[in-house]
């Protein structure tokens, strides 16, 4: 997962075998390691923490073999990342929905265009259906051309009720209609799609905040594209500032993900990644597994 980091660790281990490491040598190689860590999209503050801890372990020491040194690096990475996981609450969306006495459970979906947000809305609808939880979908994207038709196609395939209005309608009003319909028809959950927002557009972000204030969601989900690179960090920061979302779903994790995207969201917000998108099918939504992530870092 972290190919560049593995190469940097290999180079670093060459100077660590059978001789003591000077501070000057260590500084030069650690600078390269820091660059590789940042290019793997690992957050800067985490890179600093890892680099500093590695320096403390290495300076003035020598190692009998490179594998011994590599194990130290691996352990340092793992322990630092585990600290992040330990600070994040474990959330089970299905249990949350089932435990709420007053229905519906309101799920608000936020994110930028192109992140796979609408498809993820459909995947959530499929997931709830598989767990015997009834749901309706709200077409809250009344701005983007074709958005309502796109979400309607998904709803039809899943045989789920869609609540929609015409283009240009107030998204907060559409969301409210969805909640009211769910109440009167004893629906367990309502999934509210929204227009994709660029995180730098404050007017559009205020619109998300209006929807949130009107429907008072039980759980707000940020949809992030795992291939977005460092831009994912700024997206996460801005959406969390406006919505204080409760958890994230990362899409396109089946592609060439560097690993830093996951760490960025966790360290930036302290909120859990509840699912990851691993393909195009409705069933391709997996619960995020910390142990699998850790074991895959150096494979």
UniProtKB/TrEMBL annotation:
<dbReference type="InterPro" id="IPR042101">
    <property type="entry name" value="SRP54_N_sf"/>
</dbReference>
<keyword id="KW-1003">Cell membrane</keyword>
<dbReference type="GO" id="GO:0005886">
    <property type="term" value="C:plasma membrane"/>
</dbReference>
<dbReference type="GO" id="GO:0006614">
    <property type="term" value="P:SRP-dependent cotranslational protein targeting to membrane"/>
</dbReference>
<keyword id="KW-0378">Hydrolase</keyword>
<dbReference type="GO" id="GO:0003924">
    <property type="term" value="F:GTPase activity"/>
</dbReference>
<keyword id="KW-0342">GTP-binding</keyword>
<dbReference type="InterPro" id="IPR003593">
    <property type="entry name" value="AAA+_ATPase"/>
</dbReference>
<dbReference type="InterPro" id="IPR000897">
    <property type="entry name" value="SRP54_GTPase_dom"/>
</dbReference>
<dbReference type="GO" id="GO:0005525">
    <property type="term" value="F:GTP binding"/>
</dbReference>
<keyword id="KW-0547">Nucleotide-binding</keyword>
<keyword id="KW-0472">Membrane</keyword>
<keyword id="KW-0675">Receptor</keyword>
<feature type="domain" description="SRP54-type proteins GTP-binding">
    <location>
        <begin position="272"/>
        <end position="285"/>
    </location>
</feature>
<dbReference type="InterPro" id="IPR004390">
    <property type="entry name" value="SR_rcpt_FtsY"/>
</dbReference>
<dbReference type="InterPro" id="IPR013822">
    <property type="entry name" value="Signal_recog_particl_SRP54_hlx"/>
</dbReference>
<dbReference type="GO" id="GO:0005047">
    <property type="term" value="F:signal recognition particle binding"/>
</dbReference>
<dbReference type="Pfam" id="PF02881">
    <property type="entry name" value="SRP54_N"/>
</dbReference>
<comment type="similarity">
    <text>Belongs to the GTP-binding SRP family.</text>
</comment>
<dbReference type="InterPro" id="IPR027417">
    <property type="entry name" value="P-loop_NTPase"/>
</dbReference>
<dbReference type="InterPro" id="IPR036225">
    <property type="entry name" value="SRP/SRP_N"/>
</dbReference>
<protein>
    <submittedName>
        <fullName>Signal recognition particle-docking protein (FtsY)</fullName>
    </submittedName>
</protein>
<dbReference type="GO" id="GO:0005737">
    <property type="term" value="C:cytoplasm"/>
</dbReference>
<keyword id="KW-0963">Cytoplasm</keyword>
<dbReference type="Pfam" id="PF00448">
    <property type="entry name" value="SRP54"/>
</dbReference>
């Amino acid at each position: 997962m972290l190919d560049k980091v593995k190469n940097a660790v290999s180079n670093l281990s060459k100077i660590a075998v059978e001789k003591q490491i000077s501070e000057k040598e260590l500084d030069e190689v650690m600078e390269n390691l820091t660059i590789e860590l940042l290019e793997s999209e690992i957050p800067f503050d985490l890179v600093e923490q890892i680099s500093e801890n590695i320096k403390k372990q290495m300076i003035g020491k020598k190692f009998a073999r490179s594998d011994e040194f590599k194990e130290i690096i691996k352990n340092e990475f793992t322990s630092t990342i585990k600290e992040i996981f330990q600070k994040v609450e474990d959330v089970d969306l299905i249990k949350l929905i089932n435990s709420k006495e007053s229905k519906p459970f309101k799920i608000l979906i936020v994110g930028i265009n192109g992140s796979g947000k609408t498809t993820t809305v459909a995947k959530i609808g499929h997931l709830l259906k598989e767990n015997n939880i009834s749901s309706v979908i709200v077409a809250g994207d009344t701005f983007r051309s074709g958005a309502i038709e796109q979400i309607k196609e998904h709803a039809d395939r899943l045989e789920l009720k869609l609540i929609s209005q015409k283009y240009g309608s107030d998204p907060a009003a559409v969301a409210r209609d969805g909640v009211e319909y769910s109440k009167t028809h004893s629906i367990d959950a309502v999934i509210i799609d929204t227009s994709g927002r660029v995180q730098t557009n404050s007017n559009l972000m205020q619109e998300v905040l209006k929807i949130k204030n009107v429907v008072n969601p039980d759980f707000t989900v940020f949809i992030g594209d795992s291939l977005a690179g460092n831009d994912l960090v700024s997206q996460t920061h801005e959406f969390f500032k406006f919505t204080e979302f409760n958890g994230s779903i990362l899409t396109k994790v089946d592609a060439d993900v560097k690993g830093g995207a996951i760490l960025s969201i966790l360290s930036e917000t302290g909120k859990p990644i509840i699912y990851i998108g691993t393909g195009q099918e409705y069933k391709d939504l997996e619960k995020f597994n910390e142990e699998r992530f850790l074991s895959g870092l150096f494979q």
